[in-house]
Every structure is written in C-alpha cells, then in structure tokens.
C-alpha cells in the first residue's frame, strides 16, 4: 500500500495514556479508547456527518504470521467466519447486516485481517452482536470448509486472469525472497488443499485472541453508549495472553528480474527498491514525500518526463509500501511492449536523479500539500476514518499518530530527501517484474544490468536546473442560463464540484465512438491562458484535482479542493470550462493512454463479456458502443474534431453545476456570476437524442475465447430505464439476488461452490436499461453454473419473493444508497445528474420513498414482465480449448 494511502490509515500522534482495564479515556476530542479486561482494545470516534456508523475489527492475523505450510490460512479463515457460528447458520452474518441496510465485508493483508461493516447508526447494536458472534464462536463446519476451499480456488483462478495482480505478485516474490511478504496472501493451491479443520482451529486459537484484536467504531453515535454496547458483546470472550511475535527481517534486498508471457495486448512493468517500515515514522514520511515527487499526479517527474515528453508509457505511478516489516518504493507502468527497454531506462534515469540532485523547493511544497490534503479528504468517509484509526493501533500500538506524522512531513527538507534517496534508491537493490504478450520480445538479466548502468550514468549527467442528504441545498440559475446547485456541509474543510452536460456515448456513432472520451481526457490540457503543465502544477499545488469525465449520457468536469482555496479554484475551473483549447500536441499525447485503457480492459474477461453483452443487447443504438470508445476512431480523431464538439455541446443553458462541502452558498453564487456571467451561448442546437433501441425479436448468443482459466457468463434482458416507474422494483429484485446474503450467493457459491464471483445487477439508462446475471466458474462447471442462473430466474417467476426478503432488500438498497453518498463528490454528482435528467436534484429523497412504497405484487409483476422468456442475451468468455 502506498504510504500516502497507508499512512493515511496509519498515523495520528504518539500519546502515552494509561487507564485501568475497561475504563474509557478521551484521547482526543470525540475519540475514546479503552482496553477491556480480556485485553481487547476499543476505539470510538464520534462523527455526526451522516446517520451512518462504521464498525471494524482488526485482528493480528495475516500472511506474516503464517508458516510456509499454512500459506493462505488467514485468508481462508476470513472467508469461513462468514460461514456460520454456533448460533447462526452460514450466510446469516451478511444477511443480518444487509437486511439492516448495511454492507459487510472483510480483507486479509500481510499484517492483519479486517472485518468491516457500515450500517445506519440505529443498527449499531445488531451489528456488534452479529460480528462478535462470528469472531468468537465460529462453527468451522467441515462441509463449509470444503465448499469454501473450492470458492478460494476459484478466486485464485480469477487472480491469475488479472495482469496487474500477476505481475505484482511476481515483483513481491523478487522483493521478499524467503519472507512471508513474498508469498501471495491468498496462499498457493497446494497449501490450501492441505489445510484441514484441525489446522484452522489451531491457527484460530493462536491468532484470534482478544489481546490481538482492536474494535473501531466511527459514526453518528455517542461514544459512551457505543462502548457500553460493545462491552456486552466483545467483553464476554475469555482473556488469553498475547503471543510474542517478532517481524521477520528481509533476508536480502530486492533484486532480480522476472519476465512473464500471457495472452495480453499491453505490457505491464513493475519495479521496486527497498523502503522503510511504518514503525519508522520519520523515515516513512520521507519515503511518502519522495514517492509523491517521483510519481504521483500529472506534475510528478515520471509522469512529465516518461509519459508526457517521451510518450513511452500510457500510465505510470510511484508509491511507497510501508507495512509492519520492511517496506518498498514501488513504480508501476503500462506500456506498448516495443517501448519496454526505452521506458525502463527513462524511469530509472529519472528515479536515480533523486540521488544526485536536490528537488526544487516548489516541488517539495507541492508534495507536502498533496500528502496533507489526503488526510483531510479521508474524513468524508466513516469507514476511512475507522480504517485509519484501526491500522495505526494495530501497527503502531496507538491510534493517534497523525500529529507526529504530519509534523515529520512538514519538516522534510530537500537535503533530507536526497539523503533518503541515497539510502533507499540503490542500483544494486533493484527488482523488476514484467508481463508481456506471448509474441513480444522479453528482457534478459544481462540487458537489464546494462540498462540499469546506463540509467545511473545518465542521471548524473543531467543538469540540476532542468525541470520536469441532509444538508441544505440551494439552487440558482445564472444570468447565462447555467443551473448551479450548492449544498453546505461545513464539517470538513473541503469541497467538490461536478458539472455535467448532455453528451457521451448516447450522442456517438460507430464513426465517432470515443469522441467524448478523448474530449474529456484533453479538456484540462490547455487553455488560452495556461499550458497543460502550468494547469497541473497550479491545481496540485493547492492539493486539489480537476479532470474531465464522460459516460453513456454525459460529459463534464469533476474537481476536489480545500475550502481555503475556493476563489482560486473556481477561477481555474471557470477558465478550463470556458477557454479550453485542445492543443494538437496534448490531443496526440492523450490518445495513447486512452487506447491503452481500452486494451487493458480487453485483457479483463469480465469487462470483455460486459462489452459484448451491451453490443448484442442494444444493437442498433449508441448504447451498444463502448463508453471508452473505439481504438481506431480515437487514433483517427483530430484536435479540430474535439473543438467543434466542445463548441456544440458545452453551452451554459445545457449544463448543471453542483458544489458540495464547506461552502457559503451566496458567496459561491456571487463568485460564479462574476466568473461565468459573461460566458454566452454558442450557435446551433443540440443534436436530437437517439430513439430507443429496436426491440429484441429473438435470443442473441456470443461465445468468445481467451487464454484465461475461468468461464465468464453473462445472461441478461432488456428493461426500461431511469424514467420508468418499474425501475424501483427492478432495483429490489437485484438486491434480493446479489450480495453475500443474496439468493445467487447462497445457492451457487455457498451451497454449490460453483464460483467465487456471482451476482445480478440492474443498469437503468435513458429510455432503456438492462438486467443481467453474472457468474465466473471453472470451465468444467460452466454448464451447471448457467443452469443455476436459469433456475434462479424460474424461482423468481413461479415462487416470487417473501415479505422478509423484500424487507431486507429494501433496507439493503436504502442503506447502500445513503452510504454511497457520504463524500462531497458523490453527492455533487448525484445532484447534478438527477437535475440534468429531469428527476430533480433532490431525487435521492424521492428514491428512498419510492423504494419503500413498492409492494410484493408489483415486484412479482415486474419480474414476470422483464426476466425470463425467449428474448435474452447470453455471452460467455471461455478459455481456449486445449483440443
């Protein structure tokens, strides 16, 4: 995990506090901590931003605690704790949480396992009861162990189909030879198959002790009441002494080369140097700032030099991995295979420069601002705050290290950075992992050594002077016709903005598919006043972000800024909105990454299946096209095409601008009127939107083959869209079928062990929509998997839903909807799109009410009307036959 991200979760001030067991101490305003008599730590933080509470249990159980023969057992147990306790049957934990309108999941890392859930605040007691029961009373039923082993084997196959995961694991193996961090957290098939119930119980007894656990609660709660409730459930477990543990040292620094060949189109490159542990806070702060300067954001050195100037990669980034043990400085890139050697040399040259020349003062200040701003933005999410407290406590033994860390960041000097670069970025400690297409030329160890030496020399020859729902909402229409929405939420000093216009795929043809995607990618790349680099540096110096986006129905701009920079941020936003120039050279640069993204998605079998599904379902309509566009069209488009589209579509009277955060509405309206009042309508009318897609007259089938290990199946039907009153019943149907407590998960994964991933989803569009069932299974299970999907549809149409299922699904939908709108950006986009679509900016309230009003008869009628029958689309992406 990048230290910027990891530290966000990991640091908050070293404050030494003592208290008797069970006595809560306020360690910061609104934050209380206590240690129960059984040794379990509880941390509660009050945050009344939304009527939501996040609950997380952090367990000192992960890959680092495992023996070689146990590899993957921590992850195995994480799965099994959802498979029943002595008092609850399999799936009950997820069902109870989702029925309360919440969401629950878990993940395993090298240093810990985390069980996390988010629920409406009123459901805290039920959530604590269910979670404590799962953690302290697991059944570990033999039949569930066998079933879940099959599920994890499917997960392993899925991971083998993901290029980024595969090359990342190869790099970790090089970086950590003979060390637990070098093993996959999920384990190996051979170790998983040998882990029996006795081994599971033994490991559980060792690691799942109250003295190894931290319970974190953040949300709209009273700290005292939350601790009291938690004590009743988590205080009952008996005391067991914490087991001593020493983190293994790295036996040798990262070294070596691993080249993989797969059925992919792009090249995937990752490299690493040694880095510090999180326990070394000052060193961790240095590494984090170093990574930001090197490869975080458009103004970073690697982005500017390797991607923008030399155009050798489509994506590139650097980040620091700072676990409990020895860390890494990691760099990753995606590129055309023929550019591999040139890109590798350019990346290493720019990285080694940090050893020989001090960074520029403005670079350093920009990086510090970026790191600090991340701490502020994370406060928008309850689960983000909980995760930060939990990881700090688990790794550092104290949830309040933010002050110490930020002080370390602020104290970083150019001299300190250069010393850190000399310490960690050493040519002899380089590890490189590469994934290439089968037909591509590889890279030999001898060639890597030559490139490494050349890059070190080149770095020394470069001159140091070279630069590389509840808040009030106000609506107003400006004098030029632009609709502006402002929602005041003052608890975090940030704000988000989203502006949307009709556009996107809905206004494209086969000949122009990708036009809006390329427009969005280049919208912020130059104005009549500033170049692309000047804009990027100014935005990132404020700790902000501003970029274009496009989708099926819209095109627009999205931004996040600190509230203290309101006027400056809106000035820059207005300039980009109204004075974009789409320079020829920037359009050319942007094409490569856009095309690479399309190629990357083609490497993902799930995305490939979804694209083929849409092509067949919406044939004859723009929705059949890819939202990312066609590689051939994008390669053909010119800057003049983008300018004409910009002039035709980006008109004030067609747009909706929403701003949410620490703002004063009247002040915002006045600034925007001053900045945008002179922005007038262009000439011409908006093209007519397309008619609804022609009706299906028969079933449509497609089978694609790829060098993968699972069969990915999509079975779906045409439905009405956003404007239909049936959409609410369709949403409920999808909620009944999906999720860990959903019918598909229970029947096809839990009972049949047919798949790791199985779900159903409803996607409403303008004038039409789709309802689809997805499952990924081993090839030999695909026929049974497809039969299982049809059986689920048959049951819906013959048996219907019982009142309890409907009630749970409604709570789940409403809870997830509210949880999904925690951030300023999510609320701004929700308001802007709903206003643009004619639903009204306050549609969120209407949506919840309409979900609550849907009755069982309407749901059954909608299921029979749209699901089943002969008018369907079936797509399968399957492994290439061995025959």
From TrEMBL:
Names of the cofactor(s): Zn(2+)
InterPro entries to which the protein is assigned, alphabetical: Metalloenz_LuxS/M16 (IPR011249), MPP/UQCRC_Complex (IPR050361), Pept_M16_N (IPR011765), Pept_M16_Zn_BS (IPR001431), Peptidase_M16_C (IPR007863)
Pfam families reported in the protein's UniProt record: Peptidase_M16, Peptidase_M16_C
SUPFAM superfamilies, per the entry: LuxS/MPP-like metallohydrolase
Peptidase M16 N-terminal domain ranges (all copies): 42-186, 484-625
GO biological process terms, semicolon-separated: proteolysis
Gene Ontology MF term list: metal ion binding; metalloendopeptidase activity
Peptidase M16 C-terminal domain span: 194-370, 637-813
Gene3D superfamilies listed in its UniProt record: Metalloenzyme, LuxS/M16 peptidase-like (3.30.830.10)
Protein family per UniProt: Belongs to the peptidase M16 family.
Protein name (Swiss-Prot/TrEMBL): Insulinase family protein
Organism of origin: Thermosulfuriphilus ammonigenes
């Amino acid at each position: 995990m990048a230290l910027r991200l990891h530290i966000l979760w990991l640091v908050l001030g070293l404050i030494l506090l003592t208290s008797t067991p069970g006595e809560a101490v306020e360690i910061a305003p609104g934050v209380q901590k206590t240690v129960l008599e059984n040794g379990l730590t509880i941390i509660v933080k009050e945050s009344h931003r939304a009527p939501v509470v996040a609950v997380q249990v952090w367990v000192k159980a992960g890959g680092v605690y495992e023996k070689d023969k146990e590899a993957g057992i921590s992850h195995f147990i994480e799965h099994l704790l959802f498979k029943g306790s002595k008092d609850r049957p399999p799936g009950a934990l997820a069902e109870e949480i989702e029925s309360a309108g919440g969401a629950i999941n878990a993940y395993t890392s090298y240093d810990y396992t985390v069980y996390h859930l988010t629920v409406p605040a009123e459901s805290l007691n039920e959530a604590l009861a269910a979670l404590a029961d799962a953690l302290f009373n697991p059944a570990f039923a033999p039949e569930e162990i066998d079933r879940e082993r099959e599920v994890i084997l499917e997960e392993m196959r899925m991971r083998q189909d993901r290029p980024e995961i595969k090359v990342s694991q190869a790099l970790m193996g090089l970086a950590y030879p003979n060390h637990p961090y070098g093993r996959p957290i999920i384990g190996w098939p051979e170790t998983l198959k040998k882990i029996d119930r006795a081994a599971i119980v033994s490991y559980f007894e060792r690691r799942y002790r109250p003295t190894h656990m931290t319970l974190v609660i953040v949300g709209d709660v009273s700290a005292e009441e939350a601790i009291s409730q938690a004590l009743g459930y988590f205080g009952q477990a008996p005391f067991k002494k914490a087991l001593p543990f020493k983190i293994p040292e790295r036996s040798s620094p990262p070294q070596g080369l691993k080249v993989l060949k797969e059925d992919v189109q792009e090249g995937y490159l990752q490299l690493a140097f040694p880095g510090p542990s999180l326990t070394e806070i000052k060193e961790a702060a240095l590494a984090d700032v170093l990574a930001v300067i090197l490869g975080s954001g458009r103004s970073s050195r690697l982005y500017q030099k390797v991607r923008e100037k030399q155009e050798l990669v489509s994506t590139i980034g650097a980040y620091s991995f700072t676990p409990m043990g020895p860390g890494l400085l990691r760099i990753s890139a995606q590129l055309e295979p023929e550019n591999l050697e040139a890109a590798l040399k350019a990346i290493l040259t720019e990285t080694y420069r940090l050893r020989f020349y001090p960074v520029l003062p403005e670079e350093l200040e920009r990086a510090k601002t970026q790191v600090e701003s991340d701490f502020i933005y994370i406060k928008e999410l309850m689960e983000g705050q909980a995760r930060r407290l939990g990881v700090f406590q688990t790794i550092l033994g104290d949830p309040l290290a933010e002050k110490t860390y930020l002080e370390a960041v602020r104290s970083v000097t150019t001299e300190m950075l250069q010393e850190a670069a000399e310490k960690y970025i050493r040519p002899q400690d380089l590890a490189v992992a590469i994934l290439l297409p089968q037909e591509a030329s590889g890279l030999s160890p001898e060639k890597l050594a030559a490139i490494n030496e050349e890059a070190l020399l080149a770095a020394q020859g470069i001159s140091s002077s070279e630069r590389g729902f509840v808040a009030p909402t106000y609506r107003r229409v400006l004098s030029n016709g632009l609709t502006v929405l402002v929602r005041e939420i003052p608890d975090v000093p940030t704000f988000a903005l989203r502006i949307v216009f009709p556009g996107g795929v809905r206004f494209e043809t086969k000949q122009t598919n990708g036009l809006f995607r390329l427009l969005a990618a280049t919208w912020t790349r130059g104005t009549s006043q500033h170049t692309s680099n000047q804009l990027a540096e100014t935005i990132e110096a404020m700790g902000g972000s501003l970029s274009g986006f496009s989708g099926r129905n819209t095109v627009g701009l999205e931004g996040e800024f600190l509230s203290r920079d309101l006027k400056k941020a809106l000035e820059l936003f207005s300039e980009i909105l109204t004075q974009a120039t789409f320079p020829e050279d920037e359009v050319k640069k942007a094409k490569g990454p856009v095309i690479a993204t399309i190629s990357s998605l083609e490497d993902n079998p799930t995305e490939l299946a979804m694209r083929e599904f849409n092509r067949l379902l919406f044939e004859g309509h723009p929705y059949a096209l890819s939202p990312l566009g066609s590689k051939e069209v994008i390669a053909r488009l010119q800057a003049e095409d983008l300018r004409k589209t910009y002039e035709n579509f980006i008109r004030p009277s067609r747009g909706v601008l929403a701003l949410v955060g620490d703002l004063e509405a009247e002040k915002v309206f006045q600034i925007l009127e001053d900045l945008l009042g002179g922005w007038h309508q262009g000439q011409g009318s908006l093209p007519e939107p397309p008619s609804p897609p022609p009706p299906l007259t028969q079933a449509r089938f497609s089978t694609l083959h790829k060098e993968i290990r699972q069969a990915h199946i999509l079975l779906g039907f045409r439905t009405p869209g956003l404007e239909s009153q049936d959409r609410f019943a369709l949403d409920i149907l999808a909620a009944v079928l999906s999720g860990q407590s959903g019918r598909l998960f229970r029947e096809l994964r839990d009972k049949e062990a047919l798949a790791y991933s199985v779900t159903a989803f409803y996607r409403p569009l303008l004038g039409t929509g789709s309802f689809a069932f997805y499952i990924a299974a081993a090839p030999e299970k695909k026929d049974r998997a497809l039969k299982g999907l049809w059986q689920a549809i048959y049951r819906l149409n013959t048996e219907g839903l019982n009142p309890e299922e409907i009630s749970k699904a409604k709570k789940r939908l409403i809870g997830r909807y509210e949880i999904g709108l925690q951030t300023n950006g999510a609320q701004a986009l929700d308001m802007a799109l709903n206003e643009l679509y004619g639903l009204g900016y306050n549609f969120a309230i209407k949506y919840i009410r309409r979900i609550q009003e849907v009755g069982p008869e309407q749901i059954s009628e909608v299921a029979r009307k749209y699901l089943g029958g002969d008018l369907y689309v079936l797509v399968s992406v399957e492994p290439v036959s061995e025959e």
